[in-house]
Amino acid sequence: MIAPSTQEAVRSVALSADYASAGFQFPIRALSSEKAADYRRKLEASQQALGGKFQGLYTQKPHLLFTWLAELVREPAILDLAQQVVGPDILLWSTEFFIKASGDERFVPWHVDNTYWHIEPQIQVTIWIALSDVNPDNGPLRYIPGSHLANPLEVETQASEKNMLISGQVAKGVDESRAVDVLLRAGEVSVHDSRTLHASGTNTGWDSRVGVAARYLATSVRSLTERESASLVRGADIHNHFDHEPAPASDLDEAARAAHAKAADMRLRNMYGARHRDQPALKSIGAAGE
């Protein structure tokens, strides 16, 4: 059980040797409860301004649209964790909302993040930031320990409205008896390798499960397909493999929308090819939110 806490001290946390062997580590306190609650209020205000939920391209790289999210993914404690994996020169490649309201029947099937990433070397880390408590009944993230060191499983496509993954990918032959539930308090994070098998179920609890996934790369990483963009969030970039993205000056302003549309299109095209434009889940920003 995770003990309740209110005035937690946020301090630098070293990733243990278990991270290398398990492919994940949690819980790690990155934000105070008060700061997490403030970020959640800002997230929910942004949701309401867009009609009650994020959809379409608003779910891809939203740190380029919202100032509060650009601030969240640059929190020193979060970057300190990323630095332990990717080194002192850090690119923020993407962010994604993973929000399940109470009673939400959507789920995330077993998968690994890097199936469609097309990058090398694999110097990367995902930090999953909880802005609400994550309990056994509201669809927690689940990991398979050590799966990042095993041969990749065969993947099939099972796209549906309830599958939260755009790709619809599902890994076959997962031994779920080994799964570990990721239980977190608001302001805590989980850190995982992109090759670690993970999933999450439906939310049968009373409160929303609110999470943000932030993907960080070393500046030495390059795309194996077309050139992409990323945000330099710490250190220097002597490699210049990615175009540098601007942080938004204000929420959803004209410059932010233009930069976001370009960056999101580059990212999705590199992952899925031209077919991404035909997917209903990836409508244009105008169609999705205005």
TrEMBL record:
Q: Which Pfam families match?
A: PhyH
Query: Which segments cross the bilayer?
Result: none
Q: Which GO terms describe its molecular function?
A: 2-oxoglutarate-dependent dioxygenase activity; iron ion binding
Q: Which cofactor does it need?
A: Fe(2+)
Q: Source organism's superkingdom? A: Bacteria
Q: Transferase among the record's keywords?
A: no
Q: Print the keywords alphabetically.
A: Dioxygenase, Oxidoreductase
PANTHER family according to UniProt: ECTOINE DIOXYGENASE, PHYTANOYL-COA DIOXYGENASE DOMAIN CONTAINING 1
This chain's protein is named Phytanoyl-CoA dioxygenase
Origin species: Variovorax guangxiensis
